[in-house]
Amino acid sequence: MTVVTRARGENFPVASRLLPNGYRRHLLAVYGFARLVDDIGDEPGHDDPLRLLDAVEADLLRLYAGRAPLLKAVRDLEPTVTACSIPLAPFRQLVEANRRDQSVTRYKTFADLLDYCELSANPVGHIVLHVFGMAAPDRLPLSDRICTALQLLEHCQDVGEDYARGRIYLPQQDLERFRCAESDLAGPATPDPVREVVALQTERAERLLREGDLLVASVTGLARLAIAGYVAGGLATVTALRQAEFDVLGQAVRPRGTPLLTAWLRILARRGCGGGRP
């Protein structure tokens, strides 16, 4: 499956066709790298994920040292890193998140999960802001809220899939609060305790999206278009989860095109979003 095909399956427009080809290439290169490290960390068939993740990081270091990378996903990053002056740190954080996945399979509190998102999700937002030349320090915390929210929503959608891999990204304290046993995550139907836990995570994600939405108002032009699309994808996913009554085990809950487009247009049309500094 190509990077473009996989990107179409995400909750939000990874690299909208409304963007010029140059920006789309940069965003797809970033997405391709993120998918590579996620696949190493998640997919069966890798005998030694930590060794492979070390190889990816070594290839990143080659790239930033001015030497030719060996891996296609890292080679594809080279024009993006050069043109957009993207620092090494966020790429290394994505690798580190997948290292953590090899040893940490449960998160006690919501704060613990947020700490994980600092590695697994938030660096992507920083990279995207660099792609658009808008990585000002005051924008990064707003970007973090959006990216964390998108990660939380993905965890809600993938409860059964994650559990089959031996991982739970729902906080243990919340499972205990709603008297949800881990075995409840394994069935073909979604019991009420699981729905309540997922509903709580969805509410938290929506709140983060609303807080991070200020980022849209702080940027202009193509960055505004792209970031509004990410927020809209998150809000459409919130809507889809609620409409499904948080039945995430009995069906695949994904946002449909119309709610996403409606949310996207509403965000772009909102008064005050037209300003912002470059």
Keywords:
278 residues; Farnesyl Diphosphate Synthase; globular
- Per DSSP, the total helix count is 14
What is the mean predicted local confidence, pLDDT? 93
Total beta strands: 0
What is CATH's topology name? Answer: Farnesyl Diphosphate Synthase
**Order of SSEs, N→C?**
HHHHHHHHHHHHHH
The amount of helix comes to 55-70%
Summarize the structure.
The chain is mostly helical and 278 residues long. The chain has 14 helices and no strands.
If you had to describe this structure to a student in words, what would you say it looks like?
By secondary structure, this protein is mainly alpha-helical. It has a single domain, classed as Farnesyl Diphosphate Synthase (Orthogonal Bundle). Helix content is 66%, strand content 0%. It has helices at 3-8, 21-42, 49-64, 72-84, 89-101, 110-120, 122-131, 140-157, 159-164, 172-177, 192-212, 214-218, 221-243, 257-269. Helix 8 (140-157) packs antiparallel against helix 11 (192-212) and helix 8 (140-157) runs parallel beside helix 13 (221-243). The longest helix is centred in the C-terminal third of the chain and has 23 residues, at 221-243. The chain starts with a helix and ends in a 9-residue tail after the last helix. The relative contact order is 0.11.
Write the layout of secondary structure elements.
Blueprint: H1 3-8, H2 21-42, H3 49-64, H4 72-84, H5 89-101, H6 110-120, H7 122-131, H8 140-157, H9 159-164, H10 172-177, H11 192-212, H12 214-218, H13 221-243, H14 257-269
Helix pairs in contact: 2-4, 2-5, 2-7, 3-5, 5-6, 5-7, 6-8, 7-8, 8-11, 8-13, 11-13, 13-14
